[in-house]
Amino acid sequence: MIRCSRDSTIRRRRRGRLGREQAEPQNCSDVVVSDTTDPGSVVLHEWDRFVDTVPGADVAQLSVWARIRHDAGFRPLYLLARIDGRLVGGALVLERRLPVVGRFGYVSNGPLVCPSVARAPVVDQLVTALADLAQTRLHALFVQPPTGGEDVSTGLRSHGFRPSTAGIAPAHRSGSTCTANARTSTGA
Question: How far, in Å, CA of 117 to CA of 122, rounded?
Fold first, then answer.
């Protein structure tokens, strides 16, 4: 699990899409991100329901997409952001090992954030988790944020990601470029 270290206090309340008042996360440590390659059917169902509720979400974040991409050699890794046990964000990272290159991953049209919670702490946690993956698990990680995900792109760049036109992830309907963070090997 990854917790953010920065304290970004948000103490206001706001109205959700249905007009109900909802508490905002007090700080980004309220957001806990976990990762799993085998979430089980209950969590997959929860994830798919979550993706269905996020406006503008893409099929490329659904578990069925992971099953389709499995035939091309990709393994799913789910990043799940929760506040008090409630799923409020996440990303489906598809990873694959290639000869000579090593393990790389991509996120197409993600990460996603629940529209009824404060976006900034969730994005901060998910970007931190993606940066950690790029540094510890993957040789390269390509992230193609969803439409309206400029805050994700900004956060990724602050963690050392850079713009890329590599075309790893499926084409994005807004035409934005994906960002990549490639580790350089040291030594032989």
Answer: 8
121-141 pLDDT tens trace: 999 999 999 999 999 999 999
Are 48 and 92 in contact by the 8 Å Cβ rule? The answer is no
On whether the CB atoms of residues 51 and 62 are closer than 8 A, the answer is yes
Q: State the CATH number of the domain containing residue 19.
A: 3.40.630.30
pLDDT at residue 164, as a whole number: 79
Q: How many domains does the chain have?
A: 1
Q: Which residues form the domain of 141?
A: 13-182
Q: Establish if 8 belongs to a structural domain.
A: no
Give which of 89, 110, 115, 108 is closest to 4, Cα–Cα: 89
* Cβ atoms of residues 101 and 109 within 8 Å: no
DSSP three-state, residue 24: coil
Sign of CA dihedral 112, 118, 119, 121: negative
Residue 188 located in a structural domain? no
The per-residue pLDDT for range 136-157, each reduced to its tens digit, is: 999 999 999 998 999 999 999 9
Contact 123, 111 (CB under 8 A): yes
Quote the percentage of the chain above a pLDDT of 70: 73
Tokens 């996603």 belong to residue: 112
